[in-house]
Description:
Order of helices and strands: HHHHHHHHHHHHHHHH
Oligomer: single chain
Radius of gyration: 23 Å
Number of strands: 0
Number of domains: 3
Amino acid sequence: MNAQPTRTTGETGAVNADSKDGGECLLPTALMNPTLCGLLLFLFPFVLGPVIGGKGWSVKFLSGDVYYYFVVARNYLDHGITSFDGEYATNGFHPLWQGCVILITSLSDGLGLSLFGLCALTLFFSVLIVAVALLILAACFRRALGSVPWLFCLLPLGICGVIGFLGTPWAHLSLWSYANGMESGLVLPAYSCWLYFAFSKNFLKTPGNAAGVGTAFAFLVLARLDHVFFVIPVAVVVVIRCLMRPSNSAFAYLIAIIIPAGTLLAYMFINLHYVGFAMPVSGAIKSTYPNLCLQNFVDVRDVLSNPLAAESILLFFRLVQVFVPAMAGLFVVGYSCFSSSFRAANYWRALFFTAVGTVMLALSLIHISEPTRPY
């Protein structure tokens, strides 16, 4: 009797079938791994960049605003002060990434790199950060579903990337855009760490898990200050649980709030002491943070009521950038309220908390119809 083809399934998705010539693997096992395929797809443009981009290729991937981080880093290294002009202190940056850029700039100086070299080094760290986030997200899928689905391969592109290919710059709407030398790259591993703890069966049930959640939230807030809104829904649940079921173990869950709250308070105290302002002044220019505002939804209504108007077309990209995630968040909130899986699966609860935070963040952004304010 002829031997039957062997088939191996699992996260690797490897399929080994005996060929007519004596049994060779149809595809390399490594390439049948969803995690590795997604990682390779993400890395591809950055590996190809030096080959076809020529001198200064890395600059094409970086956001124009990375210049501000470079200037503050240079002034800190030269004058010992976080400043745009080398004389007056400023807090107009997200602290965790600014600290990273200072370290990157110091490393660049030690290696004797040019400005192009500094840009390439910054891009390298940005790519590395997002790659690590992808690996953590894969671990989240394994924890929640038991394996990594094949759609993970397309994660670097994403639905926003598909929209981007239809008429807006692809780099602004895909996962590749997070490797841009800005603080947005740090958001991904921070959020991924939060998901990893949230997907646990012990989510907010043990002090250890609560400490992990709190640390991930502190990481997220320092990575991008306005993402404190993602902490608020969990904080509300923790407080309600402590009030409804007061016990020593219940109060241990307050760790999930104390860690990020303490981190934010320390950041505000340092700002107040060294700069004179508790919160970044630049935040008032870009958002209504920390105050929520319904005007953005009014703007959406006006745009949708006359989508062919010139001003509506100009605001389309802003709508996609801000309100597609917000509407997705509202959908998850609604679905979670009526779905039995919401009560059964921790990952649905984690998505619910994320959705509420996303909607709150959208409400705090500056009005999409409002012109840019002068500095």
